[in-house]
Amino acid sequence: MNWTPLESLEQLHAIKQSAGYSILFKHSTRCSTSLMAKKKFEFEWDALPEETSVYFLDLIKNRQISNTIAELFDVHHESPQLLLIKDGECIYEASHSEISAEEAAEQMAVNS
Question: Which of 91, 100, 97 is nearest to 78 (CA)?
Answer without folding.
Answer: 97
